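Tokens in:
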């Protein structure tokens, strides 16, 4: 018997509870055990965020519901975009306190444009500061604002405590599980359009890899039936074709893949046997069939260079260090990371284009965990030229802060060429929306956290390219650079820490040209950090042991990317993150700066 199929994606702003909801749906339908979470990747677990879209399925009342959980962070927007074409409706989760946020708008806009209908889940209704009614109103306005048609505007609403696996249709209903949401899905999401009699057309939206089977494509069958052993044609959106053969076929049961002999239109399945299959291509059976519309993904906004680590400490800590190894790894990444672009033309570096600092940072973090060593240059925004005019990407930044700190935020944002679009105050909390060139925003997050004592929330959304705004002055600290090779001495650091913030503590190996801290006032400063107390001078008071250093502000990958200057490289190894000048000796630096002026 063929079951009815419903295909849905869960979308929302970051942290509004998509994964909690997906997990609870899987648990309550008996697909996974109690302590399971869809955030299975090591980095996802560590950071408590979703990075990759993932799909699974549940069975309810003789219906198979394929569910795609998506990430909410703006940098992973392409992970959402690529799945939206393959599903029939979205569950839009909105936090009952925060209301619609920038990424709510982004993902809803993409969904509405594709003609998808939504079920709105107002989540976290257990929060003491929930504002369910107002939030519901705001969601309606957002739909209107984004040009939803009448059918889309008529969205059903479910209230939820996703964390506890509870959903209800009316706020004062009594409910102990997600049945009301499941019923809503069955009632409101149309069964997958499934004409099994037509010739096969299937489109992958995700790729996976298996040591034995090679590349796997996860996609939706739009028409027809797919069978193991079948000869197929792969058609690119441009019309080019190649031949292939399906060697294995899997359907999803919970998160497990279940080998099947055939699958029919409407379902989401995984196929093996097409070693060069790519996202957005069409798997079909005859050249006369039209390719399915391409899956469109927004353009990257920032870029930086990846290069071999040629620092004096290069090659000591990693096992994959050559240009060839880095190139192969980046080529592999391109197959699965649809928001990424890479230019391999230069012989000295690979130019990597991404959707934001976190998008790039996750790639680098994965690489260092695999044993790679590399250097990267400062992230730069992508400047376009259109009709002789220079254009740069702009972002809308939504900031929630205690009103006490709003002055400091406005001042800093103005300096970085941000302008206020809207300002609201509720109690002693303020929400300020700015428009700012991405270039101005780069490097601001760290300062924002300090300026708002960690109590502010900042989220962004790329709004497109606008005329270039000219020079932006934002860096008012210089770099403190080691002039010597050796181990840092507490005695020297004790003096140096009065000049700025140190990135390293005592007894750390440094090299000439390595950046060991910043200088609060003024330009770069070359220093000696390895000089110990002069031991022959017996009258010198105090010993190294009595020196109490302020704990260093240690560089993480993201901090490094954020604070690094244009003439620096961030050196990344499985064990260390170091910042260095591109020119290691002071003489070379002076020469280089003369040349560029
Ligand atoms: N109070 C409360 N907390 C919840 C609820 N649902 C989820 N949370 C918490 O909210 C946090 C974020 O939940 P996630 O499910 O990871 O959010 P997400 O939308 O998947 O986040 P990203 O995938 O990173 O965008 C977690 O700490 C959850 O425990 C809820 O109904 N009430
Ligand atoms: Mg999640």
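Residues out:
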């Amino acid at each position: 018997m063929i079951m009815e199929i419903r295909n849905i994606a869960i979308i929302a702003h970051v942290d509004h509870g998509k994964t909690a909801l997906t997990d609870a749906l899987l648990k309550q339908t008996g697909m996974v055990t109690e302590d399971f979470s869809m955030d299975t990747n090591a980095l996802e677990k560590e950071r408590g965020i979703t990075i990759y879209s993932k799909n699974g399925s549940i069975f309810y009342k003789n219906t198979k519901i394929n569910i795609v959980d998506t990430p909410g962070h703006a940098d992973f927007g392409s992970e959402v975009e690529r799945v939206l074409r393959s599903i029939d409706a979205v569950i839009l989760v909105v936090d009952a306190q925060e209301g619609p946020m920038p990424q709510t708008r982004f993902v809803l806009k993409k969904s509405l444009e594709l003609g998808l209908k939504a079920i709105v889940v107002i989540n976290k209704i257990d929060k003491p500061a929930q504002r369910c009614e107002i939030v519901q109103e705001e969601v309606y306005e957002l739909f209107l604002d984004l040009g939803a048609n009448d059918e889309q505007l008529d969205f059903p609403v479910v209230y939820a405590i996703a964390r506890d696996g509870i959903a209800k249709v009316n706020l004062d209903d009594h409910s102990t599980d997600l049945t009301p949401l499941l019923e809503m899905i069955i009632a409101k999401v149309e069964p997958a359009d499934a004409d099994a009699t037509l010739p096969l057309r299937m489109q992958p939206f995700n790729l996976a890899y298996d040591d034995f089977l090679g590349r796997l494509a996860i996609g939706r069958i739009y028409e027809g039936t797919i069978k193991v052993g079948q000869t197929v044609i792969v058609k690119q959106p441009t019309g080019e074709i190649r031949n292939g053969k399906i060697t294995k076929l899997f359907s999803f049961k919970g998160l497990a893949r279940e080998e099947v002999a055939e699958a029919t239109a409407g379902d989401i399945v995984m196929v093996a046997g097409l070693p060069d299959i790519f996202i957005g291509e069409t798997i079909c059976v005859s050249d006369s069939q039209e390719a399915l519309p391409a899956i469109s993904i927004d353009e990257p906004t920032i870029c930086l260079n990846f290069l071999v680590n040629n620092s004096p400490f290069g090659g000591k800590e990693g096992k994959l260090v050559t240009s060839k190894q880095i190139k192969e790894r980046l080529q592999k990444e391109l197959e699965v990371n649809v928001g990424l672009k890479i230019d391999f033309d230069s012989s000295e570096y690979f130019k990597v284009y991404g959707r934001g600092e976190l998008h790039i940072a996750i790639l680098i973090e994965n690489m260092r965990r695999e044993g790679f060593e590399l250097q990267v240059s400062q992230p730069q925004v992508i400047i376009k030229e259109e009709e002789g005019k220079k254009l740069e990407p702009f972002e809308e930044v939504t900031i929630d802060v205690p009103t006490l700190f709003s002055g400091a935020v406005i001042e800093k944002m103005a300096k970085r060429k941000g302008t206020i679009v809207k300002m609201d105050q509720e109690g002693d909390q303020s929400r300020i929306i700015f428009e700012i060139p991405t270039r101005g925003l780069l490097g601001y997050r760290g300062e924002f956290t300090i300026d708002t004592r960690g109590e502010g929330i900042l989220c962004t959304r790329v709004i497109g390219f606008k005329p270039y705004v000219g020079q932006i002055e934002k860096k008012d600290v210089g770099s403190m650079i080691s002039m010597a090779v050796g181990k840092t001495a507490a005695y020297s650091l004790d003096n140096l820490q009065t000049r700025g913030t140190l990135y390293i503590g005592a007894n750390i190996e440094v090299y000439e040209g390595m950046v060991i801290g910043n200088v609060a006032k003024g330009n770069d400063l070359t220093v000696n950090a390895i000089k110990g107390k002069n031991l022959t001078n017996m009258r010198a008071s105090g010993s190294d042991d009595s020196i109490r250093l302020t704990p260093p502000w240690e560089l993480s990958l993201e901090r490094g990317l954020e604070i690094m200057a244009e003439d620096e490289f961030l050196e990344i190894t499985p064990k260390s993150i170091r910042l260095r000048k591109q020119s290691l000796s002071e003489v070379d630096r002076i020469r280089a700066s003369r040349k560029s002026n």
